[in-house]
Amino acid sequence: MNPEFRRNLWLQLSWPKLVLTPVLIGTIFAVIGSTLGIPLVQAVAGYGFWAATILWGTRRAADSIAEEAAGGTWHSQRMSSLGAWAMTWGKLFGATAFPWYVALICLAVQEGTWSLGGTGVCGPALFGRVAPTLDTAACLAAYGRMWAAPVWMIAIALSAQAVALAVVLAALRRQPLALRLPVTLAQGVAILLLASLNQIYLPASGTGAVVSQGLDGIRSLVLRPMRWYGASVDPLLFSHAAIALLLGVTLFAAYRLMRVVLQYRSWPWGIVAGTAALSILVAGFPPVFSKPDEAWRFAPDALLLLTWAAVYAGLFTDRIDFARLPRLAEAAMDGAFARMLRQSPSWLAAYVFALGVGIGVAVLAPGGQEIHLPGAPSMLRDLRFEPLVPAIAAQLLYVLRDIAIVLWLHLLLGPRRADLAALVSLAVLYLLLPFVADAAGLGELVLRLRTAFGPGIAIGIAALQAALACGLFLLRWRALPARPGAVEAGPSRM
Amino acid sequence: MIDVQSLTYDYPGLRALDGVVFRIERASITALVGPNGAGKSTLLRCISALDEPHEGRVLIDGRDVHDDPRASHRLLGYLPDTFGLYGGLTVMQCLRHRAGTHGIRGPAQAEAARRAASLMEIEDKLAAQAEELSRGQRQRVAIAEAIIHDPRVLLLDEPASGLDPEARAGLSAVLRNLAAGGVTILVSSHILAELEDYSTHLLALEGGRVAAHRPIHAAAAGEDVTVQIALAVADDRLPAVLQTAGADLIDASSQAARLRLAADPAIHAALLRRLLDAGMPVSHFAVEQADLQRLYLEVLRDTRGARP
């Protein structure tokens, strides 16, 4: 047995717990059922499942790392020979074993009450009771489509827990000495994820429709196809595929982060593949007013935006390790690109990928695009986009500027204060300064410059800002004392 | 066995290790000493591949530990200065878990756990919960975890802190046994008297640099040794006899003397014969044992004196 899983079972489960928990939960549901009715049992069991897996399970998943870091056992785990995948699933399933035990009991109660006359989707119709408002055949069809609901509920919960584990692993790598806040953050992210998925999954499965709109709701939602890349897709099939993809991506993310903290050397293809997969998924949903067969036109934009987003995600989650930068430069100068890539922080790998994507898009679609959107409001009906090359180049330079600002702030303030300062700086740059500049009349100046020098002026402005930010970073880097006078020294516990 | 080459490690604004170079032979026990902030713990983390240095390499049996840290961990046992145990588990479960994470499977896990417990003399605690143990017992469990997979290199950061005198003596015996079995040990500690008990070499760090790396015992270092002589009855001829024998006197009286001699036992035997032949009632003739405290302070003084 996986030793990490077994260790967690030793800590989480005991015979008294295993025996008493179902007795206690069963008693509670029996009381609710006998006094308030079966439908309420079903509802409480459903909420019980989500509470156990999302509120409690995500906390346990996140704590599986935070407790080790706080308890001083993480060094030993890092010194072990256990593989990254074994460590990942050992923690993910082991640390959450008890919440899952409770959740599965709740799920069994919820499913079991179908046969006891729960109102659910088709309970009355399925078991021959009088249900004048429901059509038995339609209900059977709908229920047939939903048979796998518990499987997908489990998949969603597991995804949320994997997200919680991944967030804390990223935090551990980023700032190993302060993990309480990331644990809460991880839980928050997981809950948000659940809320988002429920918005997609429940309407698609028909459950929400039945509760709120009865049979017509089922018909309207189950029968109405979704459009993805202009093609008609069964909504339930799509939601299942999306959840399966999400489960795969979140488990993969947790595994990759575990590899990083356990010091495996990895090629940075994870962030590249993840960004590309997400781009493909998102690009299939073009703006609502576009024609279905024009979805592909938006794919490059989605890819560009997501690659840029990946740089920022890496910049705010990966460890800013200045020790590694000279090694990377050395590897680059030696021509050892394989070594360089395997040691690259994720934000650098993402930036290199973004550069590649930018160049690719600029080469494939260099000119301005014209898109006609008949369904859009009149002012948006005939869009003419600017030539892409200057815009892409300028945006890549702005991303470079932001990287330099974040690194500079890390050198200046140390890791604990740098993140907040970086967020504030970026908010000022992107949210406040444009208004101030516009109010000061700089917008008009830019337009004049643009008229005089063409769209390339955007590159010049971005390059100037990037050069300033890089200059600040390099000045600070060179000014680092090589002897005592620490900015933020301390042992690594990652 | 452990070959450290030009190791440099920086924290932002602080160079913790500065071009550290040394080589440790197999089956030796090296005392890693130095003032607070000298870089001892950072050095141990770099050797154990937990932290990656900015420059330089750490080779164990010729293999760079940072090329494949996880593979290196199979060869290494490491006890950090702040360690933890899983308080809710029994000692047996803690040890079986650690054995499992090192790839030991099946019945061999329990065997490895018992063997490690036996080495650390905690067999009677195997059924106890880790959280119920005293500080010293917890320390022993942690060391047992570090050695459970029979590492070839053992790195210990302050292993004796929290141990009572009896337990420290036991730890000395354990480390000597491990070294006799071929394990190379590097021990960081501030308790020099304890290190003196079992260490064969001294590695002193000062300001992130190696201040000294040498065998603790003068004989092993090829240096002269200090010999102590005492007479049962005072004899005024003692200094003169020793001088005519060609000894390098450090101090001498009519009843006792300290002198420098080559580390050759034959020379010692010849001097003793000469004293006895002169009719002196020699009651004590012994090579002075290494005084790690003195050696360490000398090293620090020399290092700081040599610094501009």
Description:
The complex is a heterodimer of chains A (494) and B (308). Chain A is mainly alpha-helical and 494 residues long. Chain A has a domain at 1-253. Helix content of chain A is 74%, strand content 2%. Chain A contains 21 helices and four strands. Chain A has a two-stranded antiparallel sheet with strand order 1-2. In chain A, strands 3-4 form a two-stranded antiparallel sheet. In chain A, a hairpin with a 2-residue loop joins β1 (226-228) and β2. The radius of gyration of chain A is 27 Å and the shape is globular. The model of chain A is unreliable at 118-134, 203-223 and 483-494 (pLDDT under 50). Chain B has 308 residues and is an alpha/beta fold. Chain B has two domains: 2-219, 3-Layer(aba) Sandwich (Rossmann fold), CATH 3.40.50; 220-287, Alpha-Beta Plaits (2-Layer Sandwich), CATH 3.30.70.980. Chain B is built from eleven helices and 14 strands. Chain B has helices at residues 40-47, 69-73, 91-101, 107-119, 135-147, 165-180, 192-198, 218-221, 238-244, 265-277, 292-306, and strands at residues 2-11, 14-24, 29-33, 55-60, 63-64, 76-79, 153-157, 184-188, 201-206, 209-215, 225-231, 248-252, 256-261, 282-287. In chain B, a hairpin with a 2-residue loop joins β4 and β5 (63-64). In chain B, α3 (91-101) packs across α4 and α4 crosses α5. Chain B is globular. Chain B starts with a strand and ends with a helix. The chains are: A mainly alpha (494), B alpha/beta (308). At the A-B interface, α1, α4 and α15 of A face β1, β2, α1, α2 and β6 of B.
Short summary of the structure?
The complex is a heterodimer of chains A (494) and B (308). Chain A is mostly helical.
The CATH class of the largest domain in chain B: Alpha Beta
Instruction: Please report the two chains with the greatest interface, counting residues with C-beta closer than 8 angstroms to the partner's C-beta.
Output: A-B, 43 and 48 residues
- Mean pLDDT score of chain A: 75
Give Rg of chain A in angstroms: 27 Å
Category by helix and strand content of chain A = mainly alpha
Q: Using the 3D structure, state the CATH architecture of the largest domain in chain B.
A: 3-Layer(aba) Sandwich
- Give the full name of the CATH homologous superfamily of the largest domain in chain B: P-loop containing nucleotide triphosphate hydrolases
Strand content of chain A: under 5%
Biggest sheet descriptor of chain B: 6 strands, mixed
Cα shape of chain A: globular
Determine the N-to-C terminus distance of chain B. 34 Å
Q: How many strand elements of chain A?
A: 4
Helix/strand/pairing category of chain B: alpha/beta
Topology pattern of chain B, helix = H, strand = E: EEEHEEHEHHHEHEHEEHEHEEHEH
Order of helices and strands of chain A: HHHHHHHHHHHEEHHHHHHEEHHHH
Write down the oligomeric state: heterodimer
Q: Into which percentage range does the β-strand content of chain B fall? A: 25-35%
User: How far apart lie the N and C ends of chain A?
Assistant: 26 Å
Instruction: Summarize the amount of helix of chain B as a percent range.
Output: 25-40%
